[in-house]
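G., before I forget:
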Amino acid sequence: MQLRFFLFERHRDKTALVVAVALSIFLMTRDDGGKAATARAFSAVLLGPAVRVGAYFDSMEELRSENRRLRELAASLYHERERLVRQGRERDRLRRLLELREKSPFRFLPCEVIAHSSSRFHQAVTVDRGEADGARAGMAVVGYRGLAGRVTQTFENTSRVLLINNKAIAVSCRDHRSGVVGILEWERGNLFRLEYVGREEDVAPGDTLLTSGLGRLFPEGFPVGTVFQVSTEPGNLSRRIGVVSMADLHKLEELFIVVSGEGWDAEAVFDELQRREGGGETP
Amino acid sequence: MRFAKAAIAAILVFLFQLIVVGRFAVAGAAPDIMTILVVVLVLDMDPVLAVVTGFFLGFLQDLGNASFLGMNALAKCLVAWGVARTGGGLVPESVPFRAALVFAASIVNDIVVLVVTTGFDVPLILVSFFRYSLLSALYAAAVGAVVFVLQGEIAGRMVRAGGRR
């Protein structure tokens, strides 16, 4: 009776504590199997979603850093891809240039554009071949797509090339399909006008224009442009023919100076130009 | 009703401890907010009820941790008994005193846990105690102080709202 009073009345809290401590120690010392394991497994199932939420936030951190790394990688790969695309295009261009060079009856001097003209109305480029390489004023300059211009000035190791999108240059052209001849004059951008073609002449959109070789300023047979518009205005004797140039004259990189070839003598052109300049004529 | 509220609070705090607290560790030390909950709940309780509450909160923690089953129950029932004996009645409204109680409770809790987990390896206990437990206890005391301030604010508002009615 006294013990009961001592334990459950006078030291009630201490008794509860001792019981709780004893129970805790009992739980710790007993084998972690059976019902305790079941309880833990059950709690693990209940806590699973919460733990997964925690893991989700952990993985968010990892994802964030991984995302940062991947962005950096993507940026470098993007630049790498751009570089490869650029090289691929260059390779294609060079391959076409090589084909042109091998198949053509002309003798070419390969060159590379090293500077573009800063003037909007005086389209010209500087190439990395000069007198030392055999370049002379008057020589035609072509790209793999077609005619690009003419050498107007030569230096020891460089040359200045006046492009055909220039008011100072007029190119005698022949319609590849019908043989109609006209003079190509620059209008704007890559657009030209084929002049001096009569109303009844057979020129149609889609026709390809080649250099005619007449006037001997440009060698014969190089593609120059494609007709995209043909119209006849009432009262006019000639037709209005719009032409777009074959070569993109604003993006020239690799070119060929036509040194010589069948039926075309650069020396003669040079002499002719010299003669005209001496006589005050415009080329 | 009070028991239900305490049970819900215990589960929420337990989940918070499990998921969030680890992310706010400072120098590897994170507060044991279950200990703070024990202090908050048993501060004004009868010591017997406090022991039972502490035991069950600790047991809940044991079930969720892959540690010794009963270890947290032992620590929390000792903490609860100590807090209930010291009591909120001593300096009832003092936040620093209550924060000090949390600090002491956290120390006791950690000592019990260290003793059990290290198997009475005194050097290891000392190293862990000075490396982590003190910092954790300080952290817990700071968090506890915030909790007590918020608790006081909420209680004050409820009293004022009741007065206006």
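The longest helix of chain B spans residues 122-164. The mean pLDDT of chain B is 84.

More on Monday.
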